[in-house]
Amino acid sequence: MQFKQEFLDKLKDAKKIVFFTGAGISAESSIPTFRGKDGIWNKMKPEELANFDAFIRNPDLVWEWYQHRRIIVNTALPNAGHTAIAELEKYYDVSVVTQNIDDLHRRAGSTKIFELHGNIERNFCIECHTFYNSPELEITNTAPKCKKCGGLVRPDVVWFGEMLPQDEFSGGEKAAEWSDICFVVGTSAVVYPAAHIPISAKRSGSYIVEINIEPTELSRYTDYSLFGKAGEILPKIVEEVKKSKS
Ligand code: OAD
Ligand code: ZN
């Protein structure tokens, strides 16, 4: 793959880089994306599963669905895209701002991660807010009860109509604003406020590079679009970095 010279020059000079990632980066780890032909939201109605009222109406159904996704995520492995991002920490100050709840960036070795939509491995009691990591709970297909107060325990993920965790969002936004290059990887960039992250980066003068198998809503704002699989393109970028830094 031949990258354009302007991008190679940016890679050479950059100090801080940010990755804004979505479900597409985990597609090559066999975790389904949300939109597109095999997307989760084609098969499931988000309003029946991914919101607080649905959970109160039918906690076991919602819990069972997240339990199903936990099993997929736990058996998945980080792919070459996640690993390439982690490897870039040798050369840059790297922040990862992710919409994914699958924990794969951390498992690949990235250390500075802002999780905008939560993490499926964490859960909390809706009454007393005690947190439980998934392995601490007796995982069954029925919604567990809090060991302290008996309240319902839910996954610590952002549901429709809920606020994003403010520290994660503002931390991610600052990282985007301070970045020299902002990579937008595997996201349709249609879900707000998360999709503000690359826009903030752009407004602050960061160089925006999109990696996706197809054009998105964001493509017209980007400085460089790379169309292809994240797990193939990102390792090639690492190779370029190694050449330029050696
Ligand atoms: P989407 O499913 O909307 O978009 C996935 C994107 O990844 C699409 O643009 C695909 O073209 C692209 N893609 C697929 N495979 C790829 C690959 N191998 N390499 C590169 N790109 C690839 O997922 P998100 O943008 O993450 O929110 O969705 C955003 C939010 O919508 C999610 O965090 C979730 C959902 O509702 C919540 O649950 C709060
Ligand atoms: Zn409790």
Secondary structure layout:
Elements: H1 5-13, E1 16-21, H2 40-43, H3 46-49, H4 52-57, H5 59-75, H6 80-87, E2 93-98, H7 104-108, E3 113-115, E4 118-125, E5 131-133, E6 153-157, H8 166-178, E7 181-185, H9 196-203, E8 207-212, E9 224-227, H10 230-245
Parallel strand pairs: 1-2, 1-7, 2-3, 7-8, 8-9
Antiparallel strand pairs: 4-5, 4-6
Brief descriptors of the model:
246 residues; alpha/beta; Rossmann fold; SIR2/SIRT2 'Small Domain'; 2 domains; 6-stranded parallel β-sheet; 3-stranded antiparallel β-sheet; 10 helices; 37% helix; 19% strand; binds 2'-O-acetyl adenosine-5-diphosphoribose; binds zinc ion
What does this structure look like?
The chain has two domains: 1-31 and 79-117 and 164-246, Rossmann fold, CATH 3.40.50.1220; 33-75 and 119-157, SIR2/SIRT2 'Small Domain', CATH 3.30.1600.10. 37% of the residues lie in helices and 19% in strands. It is built from ten helices and nine strands. Strand 7 (181-185), helix 9 and strand 8 form a beta-alpha-beta unit. Helix 8 runs parallel beside helix 9 (196-203). It is elongated, with a radius of gyration of 19 Å. The relative contact order is 0.19. The structure holds 2'-O-acetyl adenosine-5-diphosphoribose (OAD) and zinc ion (ZN). Zinc ion binds at residues 125, 127-128, 130, 146, 148-149, 151.
